[in-house]
Amino acid sequence: MTDNVPILQGDRVRLRPFHTTDIAARLALGRAPEIVRSFGGTPEGLPPYEHKEAAAWVARNMAHPHAWAVEVNTRFLGEVRLDNLILADRRARLAIGLYDVAQLGHGIGREAIALVLAHAFQTLALHRVD
């Protein structure tokens, strides 16, 4: 599916299709307690993030027709997706995950979301993204 995912370029953020080389980058970001909490989870007692989890995560994103890897200065930081896209109803749900705690709070997520929304509304002609 990654053949159909366009590259979306902003001022700092580049959104691109996923590649198998992203497994190592995702594994290196691990499972930070702050990130787990931000997703509503409880980090206490979680095992370390393992290669098989990173590989499965990348494979899911590679198979997703509207998933992008988030990069800043060629450094992998996370994902952004349009889920449950229904072209007949012209709607989708947006999901984003940035996994580098040091990069949070710098507007990277905001820029990634703006790029995906521009694609959703202008290219895909959606009228609702939530």
Q: What is the number of independent domains?
A: 1
Q: SSE order, as H and E?
A: EEHHHEEEHE
What is the CATH class designation? Alpha Beta
Query: Mind telling me which CATH architecture this is?
Result: 3-Layer(aba) Sandwich
The amount of beta strand, in percent, is: 25-35%
Q: Low-confidence segments, ≥5 residues, pLDDT <50?
A: none
Outline type: globular
Separation of termini?
23 Å
Number of strands: 6
> Please, what is the oligomeric state?
single chain
Helix/strand-derived class?
alpha+beta
State the fourth-level CATH superfamily. Gcn5-related N-acetyltransferase (GNAT)
Q: Count of DSSP helices? A: 4
| Overall pLDDT score | 94
The percent of residues in helical segments reads 25-40%
Strand order of the largest sheet: 1-2-3-4-5-6
CATH topology: Aminopeptidase
Biggest β-sheet, characterized? 6 strands, mixed
Walk me through what this model shows.
- The structure is a single chain.
- The protein is an alpha+beta fold and 130 residues long.
- The chain has a single domain (2-129), classed as Gcn5-related N-acetyltransferase (GNAT) (Aminopeptidase).
- The chain is built from four helices and six strands; from the N terminus they run E-E-H-H-H-E-E-E-H-E.
- It has helices spanning 22-29, 33-38, 51-63, 108-123, and strands at 8-9, 13-16, 67-72, 75-86, 91-98, 128-129.
- Strands 1-2-3-4-5-6 form a six-stranded mixed beta sheet, sandwiched between helices.
- Helix 1 (22-29) packs across helix 3.
- It is globular and about 45 Å long.
- The two termini are 23 Å apart.
- The relative contact order is 0.20.
- The model has no long low-confidence stretch (mean pLDDT 94).
